[in-house]
Amino acid sequence: MAKKPKKQQESGGRAGTPATVALTAAGVDFTVHSYDHDPSHPSYGEEAAEAMGVSPDRVFKTLVADVDGSLVVGVVPVAGSLDLKALAAAVGGKRAAMADPTLAERTTGYVRGGISPLGQRKRLRTVLDDSAGAHATICVSAGRRGLEVELSPTDLTTLTNAVLAPIGRG
User: Fold this and answer.
1) What tens digit of pLDDT does each residue of 115-125 get?
2) How many distinct helices (H) and strands (E) make up the chain?
3) CA-based angle 71:74:68, to the nearest 5?
4) Cα–Cα distance for residue pair 51/68, rounded to 1 Å
5) Which of 63, 68, 138, 157 is the most buried (most CB within 10 A)?
6) Cα–Cα–Cα angle for 59, 62, 68, nearest 5°?
């Protein structure tokens, strides 16, 4: 049975996660969706899509990879996976591997399953899968498990200085 999401509009006077604070400061339109996270669910992203009643191709996961010794963020649909070779090529690198989870958490300031491409402790280079452009809005983590933010792919690209590239595999 799908969990009922709680939908709210973030307001400028409300405290939030670093991601929602960054969005509010930038003055972009966004909606926060929260749901009760189930720690036993096998996939954070698929859980979010189910809980919000949103197609998995509109819910994007934030993955941190090591490309030639530098951390890079790949943002891809939860229904697929990250093509590490394509990610490396998108940032002019040669080799990529998933980053150590502890290093990813320490660098971004977020916990695994709640890493957002927005409001990171140390801003990392970001690559957004080009499939995002097919949607008026997409959802990404708002900075903690059970919290997603919905915004336009254009705003996400602008705020993260992301490169658009085909980095997802269906």
Assistant:
1) 999 999 999 99
2) 5, 11
3) 35
4) 36
5) 138
6) 145
The span from the CA of 71 to the CA of 92, in Å, is: 13
Q: Residue 74: which H helix or E strand, with range?
A: strand 70-77
Pick the closest to residue 62 from 25, 99, 18, 17 (CA basis).
Answer: 99
- The dihedral through the CA atoms of 35, 57, 137, 28 has a sign that is positive
List, for residues 43-74, the tens digit of each pLDDT value: 888 888 888 899 999 999 999 999 999 999 99
pLDDT digits (tens, 9 = 90+) for 74-106: 999 999 999 999 999 999 999 999 999 999 999
Counting Cα atoms < 13 Å in the Cβ hemisphere of 120 gives 26
Dihedrals φ, ψ of 87, to 5°? -60, -50
Which contacts qualify for 54-58: CB closer than 8 Å, 24 or more apart? 54/139, 57/131, 57/134, 57/135, 58/135, 58/137, 58/138, 58/139
More confident residue, 99 or 145: 99
Name residue 128's beta-bridge partners. Answer: 75, 164
